[in-house]
Amino acid sequence: MRVVVVEQRVRSSPRKPSKRQTSITTEAVRWYVNNHYGTATDQGVTPTFCDPTRVGAFAVTLEGVARRDPDELFRLIVAVAMFQRRQDAQIIRILGGMTEADSAEISSMRRLLKLASRSECEHTKTLDGLLSNCDLTKTPKTKRGTCRANTRAQCHLKRHTVLLRRYGHFGKVPTSIALAVHESGEADIASMLDAAAAREATPNARARAMIAALSRAWRVSEKISSMFLAMVWNPDLTPGVTERDDVDWRHFIVIDSNTDLFLSSIGYNGLGTYEARRAFIRALSAEIDLSALCPTLRRDNPRIVQQAMYLFMSESNRRGIPTDCMRRRGEACPRCPSVLRSRCPVGDRAKRRLSVVT
């Protein structure tokens, strides 16, 4: 099935970031590269998904992601899709706590397609049936998987929604990704992405086509697609990934609530669309020489800039990182630029605000 990509345009050209906005963001990126970039605790980037102590049997390898191994990429997209509408630490506990056998089933495209084809329920056999007719949910008291469309069927989705420990219909996610790949006519996820990109003429259109292909699956949003694709294509995110000029890998930016908090804190008042916020972050990144802050980074990498925004504002993640500067408030906070101290959710000023409230 051909994925038609329409190049979206922001209704008005993104306003160029002010000098103050650029200055504050530069300090946040400096904080990030000095404290977290390239470390094992940098949450939400490739090393997170390569650590069996964190994601259990869902773990992939840097080498496998860099060479775009189909089995590893499928396992990665299933794990990445879990990271929405819950704190990261909760998702880590769910992934890490799943048995190896259950993880292997949920993260294997071949096994999911076999389960779908052998299912008693006709709604699991096609992506359209899964998206349109399957009403998977959980029973209120027992939290068992159930539905109204085919209540008596012994369906693997009902079992998966219990294993994934998310809201009821989340059990559809792994199988829907497998069906989206299968119905694209390609053998695996890497081939599907290549084919989607090959139909487009420009690097940016190719990036959008990949997002559109992935986003056909249930609950795989632009945010989730971008999070996954950045790890596959961004050379500063995954060691071993070769920089390409035929795909606009700078397009893969993850806009989440913490990123929005940072944008709000620096006075971003543009459109609230994903496209507009991405355009603004790209404009910010173009003004910041990342290579001057960290010699191994490309000069312009919006995903790194956005990661700095996200992690700086992520109170729950920072509290879970033993090496975060919040552990050394008395030493670290006085040295931190005032523009960051006034925005920091876990610094000395935040602690004083909390003591006043309580």
Explain this structure.
The chain is globular and about 65 Å long. Strands 1-2 form a two-stranded antiparallel ribbon. The chain has about 350 residues and is mostly helical. The chain folds into two domains: about 20-310, no CATH class; about 325-355, no CATH class. The longest helix has 17 residues, at about 20-35. Helix 4 (about 70-80) runs antiparallel to helix 13 (about 220-235) and helix 12 (about 205-215) packs across helix 13. The protein is built from 21 helices and two strands. It has helices spanning about 20-35, 50-55, 60-65, 70-80, 90-95, 100-105, 110-120, 125-130, 155-165, 175-185, 190-200, 205-215, 220-235, 255-265, 275-285, 290-295, 300-315, 315-320, 330, 340, 350-355, and strands at about 135-140, 145. Helices cover about 50% and strands about 0% of the residues. A hairpin with a 6-residue loop joins strand 1 and strand 2.
